[in-house]
Amino acid sequence: MFSTARTLRAAVGAACALVLAAGCSSSDETGPDDGLVSITTMRGAFLQPAEIGPAWAAPTESAAPAQLVSFCGGTTAAPEIPPGAEFVASNVADEGEKGAQTLQQSALVYNDVASAEAGMTLLKTVADQCPATNEIPATVTSDRNEPAYNETVEIRDLAEGDWTGFVIVRHKLYESEHPGTADTAVAVLRTRNVVLVDGYAVYRLENSSPSAGFEADWKRLVGSVVQRVG
Q1: Can you tell me whether residue 43 is helix, strand or coil?
Q2: Which residues pair with 95 in a beta bridge?
Q3: What does CATH list as the number for 39-229?
Q4: Which residues share a beta bridge with 99?
Q5: Following CA atoms 49, 52, 53, 57 in sequence, which dihedral angle do they give, to the nearest 10 degrees?
Q6: pTM of the model
Q7: Which UniProt keywords are given for this protein, alphabetically ordered (predicted)?
Q8: CA-based end-to-end distance of the chain
Q9: Where are the domains of the chain?
Q10: How far apart (Å, rounded) are the C-alpha atoms in residues 50 and 140?
């Protein structure tokens, strides 16, 4: 069960790359008479930076191609967007010298319930193939410098009201020479004709302890979105 909250404390976590997806507009418009959720409703359900906390903001760089957040972590690519859906997304972040928080909100809006169920099945298949652990060596390239790390991956069932699905919880621990952690939760939930994919992450530099409020924070953020849709 989720609990909603309109503010989160400022985080300390590691610097991270961000992508900017489609913008949001606020609307309470509901779907058509058949009970389907409209894409306007999903845009309006996404959290805006000011609703989360004063340090949160939308990325300022140019928009990246539509894509989902990575499920399995490590060096694995993000899953492909299942076919047949209209994709809408909004990303926000809270960045600081000692780390960052990021929230990647995205939704797949289908024309019917059966198509949404099929899309959800494809995403669950990807999640089920995630390894339980990742051991990644240091990476040094022209645009990336990341120390070696170990990452654990856990998949749990998740439900809130009419929304059902799963959450992938990852914990990344960097090598002792470069202390730092990254906690990530990717919630994948479906109701009616919509699949929501919400990825929340906390990055911490110079600290090997997991973020104490991580579990409560991702539940508040995801819960706020799903309860707006109903």
Answers
A1: helix
A2: 100
A3: 3.40.1000
A4: 96, 204
A5: -20
A6: 0.82
A7: Signal
A8: 14
A9: 39-229
A10: 35
Picking from 82, 76, 96, the residue whose alpha carbon sits closest to that of residue 12 is: 96
Phi-psi group of 20: left, alpha or beta (phi > 0 → left; psi -120 to 50 → alpha; rest → beta): beta
Give the integer Cα–Cα distance in Å for 82 and 100: 29
Distance from C-alpha of 168 to C-alpha of 158, rounded to nearest angstrom? 10
Residue owning tokens 């140019």: 62
Helices (H), 37-90: 39-45, 49-52
E-strand spans in 70-162?
Answer: 86-96, 99-109, 133-136, 139-140, 145-146, 149-160
pLDDT digits (tens, 9 = 90+) for 81-127: 999 999 999 999 998 767 889 999 999 999 999 999 999 999 999 99
| pLDDT, the chain, mean | 82
Residue type, 53: G
Could you tell me the two tokens for 4?
A: 């909603």
**CA-to-CA distance for 164 and 222, rounded, in angstroms?**
12
Q: Mark out the alpha helices in 49-202 (DSSP H runs).
A: 49-52, 113-128
Q: In a 3-state reduction of DSSP, which class is residue 135?
A: strand
Label residue 73 left, alpha or beta by phi (over 0 means left) and psi (-120 to 50 means alpha): left
pLDDT (mean) for 144-160: 90
Here the tokens at position 186 are 């990717």
